[in-house]
Amino acid sequence: MNNTKWWQTAVIYQVYPRSFQDSDGDGIGDLRGMINRLDYLEQLGITAIWLSPVYKSPNDDNGYDISDYRDIMTEFGTMADMDELIEKAKLRNIRIIMDLVVNHTSDEHPWFIEARQGKDNPYRDYYIWRDPVNGGVPNSLRSSFSGSAWEFDEASGQYYLHLFSRRQPDLNWENPKVRQEVWDMMNFWLDKGVGGFRMDVIDLVGKIPDQEITGNGPKLHEYLQEMHRETFGKHDVLTVGETWGATPEVAKLYSNPDRKELSMVFQFEHIGLDQQEGKDKWDLKPLSVNELKQVLAKWQIELGNEGWNSLFWNNHDLPRIVSRWGDDGKYRVESAKMFAILLHLMKGTPYIYQGEEIGMTNYPIKDISEAQDIETVNMYHERLAQGYAKEDIIASINAKGRDNARTPMQWDATPNAGFTSGQPWLHVNPNYAEINVEANLADPDSVFHCYRKLIELRKNNPIVVWGEFELVEDVPEEVFMYFRRYKGETWLVTANFSPAPVTLEMPEIGLVSEFMIGNYARDAADFQQLQLQPYEAFVTKLA
Ligand code: GLC
């Protein structure tokens, strides 16, 4: 265990800066706002903040389109604020993990402005250009934000590639100069003392556009090993790759320490379980709890010692878990805690997305005019043109749209939830008078205090970090149950996914009286005949 890394025992909190805390009344969150809220994050007990992009950006995709990697978005503040954030966070033992968005830049990045000047420009080859084929697009690659991934450039008569919006041109990673620019930029941030990088769609950088290979290209791992060697390999940092298509086999390539690539990846297999086979994220189907158990258990077991899991339900691209698979009405508090307990007792590094820790919910829209997100807006128009019914598209947006989790953080019951004194850039959820930080802090039984205790439990009990995982198979479908075992100790995690009570009979486990945490008042559990309450979850230590 002498190879233990700080990030293996860590809990990470994701801040979406645009929506966290505004300090100057322009309706947009900023770095000063975050600095002012560090005490709150310290109280929660987190180890590090994953900061969604704060770099200079025209905000076609809310900062995931960067025009200067070494400067700060005007609305968010200045580099001096950023340095102060890193320093003040450090004083509280909180590290700052930067979002590294290097699959693409903004079309306003000076490299792209140069590249556009013509075929002979020295920066031309920083991006991916192709001649037309039969007078049209080079091939059928699609953008994640609808339409072709190729955009025609009138001036040169060529197309450039953009796997996201046409204002996010893809960088050409085959060009060693591009990689060198990225390494230099990463070293610039490492020298500032950041705690690591979350790597945006990193599995795309090894793409071979001409073969329509995007994810997991043949040179991907070579590039990551080069990155490790040239940048963070010399630093004690966390690196986590966003890898949508990863299987456990692929995840081991990224995160087996012997290979010198990344600390861990975000895998999304569980996240896709309510989507129809072969369709995209908007085409919904009900979640099968059984499938969820099998998928999460597979990841827990298969990485073994050759990799490390990241644990998450939410981020800025996903709907809120309590609205998605829980109950954001009657059992909001119970189901929010159930998801927390279930995830935070697993093996891996947990990530909390801002607002999750107070049980924030999705924002219901009635009309597309309320949507801001580029992915949502483009999909709406595309599907409308394809003949989908408006109500069905709005239903998909309410279920899966990215704005759901991007509404402003709910701090208190004052106007705009204490997020801003101005006009918020995105609507505040109308339930803020009930669901907010202030109310959570004041109530010892709140969702917040459940998260706080879970983080404490992880800090104080090596079994939570290191214990072996074993799924209990022989239980009713809606019950998710697993053991953790470490050095002769065994913990049992029990969670009911159902809004109805469920009876469990497990005489072999018998009466358990050491109760670690739960979302209902209970100080002993008799498994000879146990009535689980709606969305009940608890953790017990077995004798
Ligand atoms: C990642 C980000 C998402 C962004 C996309 C393009 O998936 O999480 O927010 O739109 O990459 O950068």
From TrEMBL:
Record key words, sorted: Glycosidase, Hydrolase
Database matches in SMART domains: Aamy
| GO terms for biological process, alphabetical | oligosaccharide catabolic process
CDD domains, per database record: AmyAc_SI_OligoGlu_DGase
SUPFAM superfamilies tied to this protein: (Trans)glycosidases, Glycosyl hydrolase domain
One GO term in the molecular function aspect is: alpha-amylase activity
- Entry keyword Hydrolase: yes
Q: Which InterPro entries match?
A: GH, GH13_cat_dom, Glyco_hydro_b, Malt_amylase-like_C, O16G_dom_2
Glycosyl hydrolase family 13 catalytic domain: residues covered? 14-406
What is the similarity comment for this entry? Belongs to the glycosyl hydrolase 13 family.
According to UniProt, the name of this protein is Alpha-glucosidase
Query: Which source organism does the UniProt entry give?
Result: Paenibacillus apis
Native organism taxonomy = Bacteria, Bacillati, Bacillota, Bacilli, Bacillales
